[in-house]
Amino acid sequence: MNKSSLIKELFANIKTTGAVTFSSKSLVNKMLSFADFEGAKIIVELGGGDGSITRGIINRMDEDSILLVFEISKPFCENLKKEFPQDNVHIICDSAENMDQYLEGKSADLILSSLPFSLIPKESRNEIYKKSRSHLNQNGYFIQICYSYLLKFQFANYFQSIRTAFTLKNFPPAFIIICN
Q1: Which domain holds residue 42?
Q2: Sheet holding 162-167, edge to edge
Q3: Hey, which bits of the chain come out as E strands?
Q4: Residues 125, 152 contacting (CB under 8 angstroms)
Q5: What DSSP state is assigned to residue 95?
Q6: Using alpha carbons only, what angle is made at residue 40 by residues 88 and 69, rounded to the nearest 5 degrees?
Q7: 70 φ, ψ to 5°?
Q8: b/e code 28-46 from CB counts within 10 Å (16+ = b)
Q9: Structural domain count, the chain
């Protein structure tokens, strides 16, 4: 899938992508700077999109790590599967609400998300928060890109420690919420 097709898919499904552009390299680098990839064996990405975050994760993760990428858009999933054919990268065309079915009783060391929680129905959103917390290693991190600082308060029911960062080097400027 070429870049123009990806952009067309982005706009065609704005309610599920929640973005007007893909994440900038600066945003991806800043987001991933909060994650400790050394020794992280199970990594989960929520919202694979065009693969910009996926690419950054793969470049940083250990060779023996496993990456589960959740994406609900079939065209995005097809593109991700072509771009990332590695055996340790699993593109899952399913909702993040079902992450427990794919983790097979294991815990993730990192969960990295660009899901548009503001656009996800409350019941589904709370289920994703709950499963993220319950399937995250005790010392693991949940890191979220978002465009509203208010989203931080939704995580308070699930995570004890919440920090935020901000970057202007994205359109639109974005917040990064770091939870553990």
Answers
A1: 3-179
A2: 89-92, 66-70, 42-46, 108-113, 136-146, 174-179, 162-167
A3: 42-46, 66-70, 89-92, 108-113, 136-146, 162-167, 174-179
A4: no
A5: -
A6: 45
A7: -95, 130
A8: bebbbeebeeeebebbbbb
A9: 1
Q: Which residues contact 102 (CB under 8 A, 6 or more apart)?
A: 68, 90, 92, 94
Nearest one of 116, 83, 115 to 99, comparing CA atoms: 115
CA distance 52 to 72: 16
Residue 135 sits at the vertex; the CA angle it makes with 134 and 140, to the nearest 5 degrees, is 100
- Each residue of 118-169: pLDDT tens digit? 889 999 999 999 999 999 999 999 999 998 888 889 999 999 999 999 999 8
- Tokens representing 85? 């054919």
**What's 43's DSSP letter?**
E
pLDDT in tens, 138-152: 999 999 999 888 888
Strand 42-46 vs strand 174-179: parallel, antiparallel, or unpaired? unpaired
Q: What is the CATH classification number for the domain harbouring 103? A: 3.40.50.150
**Dihedral sign, CA of 74, 26, 97, 16?**
negative
Q: Which residues neighbour 137 within 8 Å (Cβ) at sequence distance 6 or greater?
A: 42, 107, 108, 109
Residues 55/31, Cβ–Cβ less than 8 Å = no
